[in-house]
Amino acid sequence: MSKQEVSIFWFRRDLRLEDNVGLFHALNSKYPVIPVFIFDDAILDSLPKNDARVGFIYDNLKKINRQLQDFNSALLVKKGKTIAIWNGLLEEFDVKEVFFNKDYEPYATQRDAAICELLENSNTITHSFKDQVIFEEKEITKADGLPYTVYTPFKNKWLEKYKSMAPVREYDATDTFSKFYKGTFVFPTLDQIGFEESTIKVKHHNLTFIANYHDIRDFPAVDKTSYLSPHLRFGTVSARKLVNWAFHKNDVFLSELIWREFFMQILFSFPKVVTQNFKASYDGIQWRNDEADFKRWCSGTTGYPMVDAGMRQLNETGYMHNRVRMVVASFLCKHLLIQWQWGEAYFAEKLLDYDLSANVGNWQWAAGTGCDAAPYFRVFNPEIQQKKFDEKGIYIRKWIKEFDLGYGKPMVDHAMARDRAIATYKEGIVK
Questions:
Q1: Residues 6+ away with beta carbon under 8 Å from 195
Q2: Inter-helix orientation angle 305-317/291-299, to 10°
């Protein structure tokens, strides 16, 4: 019995039917389109069974599956090693074409290269598309073709190019949804995937206050955070729609979206930054890396209220306000002289919006070891940051219930820690 000729669209960091470039092109191809999502063992095996991000992905896959049922179709969800899953799909269907949107992280590019080789050896045509960014890879470069390593000139070139084509095209595939493969697949339970429901949930994004974003974004007690980052990370919102909208709403908010693309370009151009300093001259810094100090930082018991509130918020909710992230990161690297990789790994474990390029980029910014980073002699004073951005202690009291009962002493004196950090950096930096 002959197998049905089909195309496959491979969902990854693009969990939506609307304005999805790869899906748009798949539905405009010759064959019925089977939508597929693969829970990748290489990623899942290191995660706790109640990982909230897996739950968020699962809930959005269920949403997509419900939408597909309106067109007598369904989402095919698999779990396992990606190469084995694709071998199975090629055996089950006569796969003529495969469509997917690009992912620029090192593991993803290696995985995709291996899958493309497998597909091409099976005479299956592959198509990959830019979807999660406005400009990718080498689209924003200096005059000599080299990547920017300083944000401001990158931003200026980005804006120049965007304005020349604004608004960026959005891809409406609604009229072609009838091209989805007609059939049903058994949708697995979360338990069958090997995970369980988490008490931590991803919040709905909120853009109602963006007009005043520049005035309120630094004050954690106001809680005027868009909560967009997890949605951008997993593609439940379209980067194109968001940028086209933000361009007319608030320049500072738009700049944050451009920072996201800047760090993606840095990761793509300099993959070593995942584990190594962008500035090799900083490799000689002698970190203390005291495990007991690190545990106090992780648990939010440093004696510095702004630091502790931020860490407790992270541990309880998977979120941390951006201003507080800077204070917390600076404290770990400068006050405690613990290398940024330790903090990056902890954030990777806890953050609902964990994105490799942004996490690495921001941690190296705080440590001073990254491109366009804060200078090494800039050491945030957590007490001054608290007075400037949470003067009445509203944010602190929300996360430190015992704060008014006589809070503990700081684990390290700021003046001493600052002097020690500057001296250690000076000694360790290779001229």
A1: 44, 47, 49, 50, 51, 54, 55, 58
A2: 70
What is the spatial distance between Cα 243 and Cα 260, in angstroms, rounded to a whole number?
A: 12
| Matching fold, domains 133-169+208-269 and 280-428 | no
Q: Both tokens of residue 42?
A: 């290489």
Establish whether 107 is an annotated binding residue: no
Instruction: Consult the annotation and say whether 229 binds a ligand.
Output: yes
Q: Does domain 133-169+208-269 have CATH number 3.40.50.2000?
A: no
Task: Determine whether the annotation assigns residue 256 to a binding site.
Answer: yes
pTM of the model as a whole: 0.95
Q: Is 301 assigned a ligand-binding role in the annotation?
A: no
pLDDT tens for each residue of 388-400:
999 999 999 999 9
Place of tokens 């541990």: 315
Tell me the pLDDT tens digit for each residue of 112-132.
999 999 999 999 999 999 999
| Reported CATH class of domain 280-428 | mainly alpha
Tell me: the pLDDT tens digits for 259-285? 999 999 999 999 999 999 999 999 999
Q: What is the pLDDT of residues 314-344, one digit of tens each?
A: 999 999 999 999 999 999 999 999 999 999 9
CA distance 43 to 81: 10
Q: Structural domain boundaries of the chain?
A: 1-131, 133-169+208-269, 280-428
Token output for 319:
């979120």
Q: 228 among the known binding-site residues?
A: yes
Question: Is 225 within any annotated ligand binding site?
Answer: yes
94 annotated as a binding-site residue: no
Residue 103: name the closest of 237, 7, 257, 233 by CA: 233
What fold does the segment set 1-131 form as a domain?
A: Rossmann fold (3.40.50)
CA angle 70–71–75, rounded 5-degree value = 90
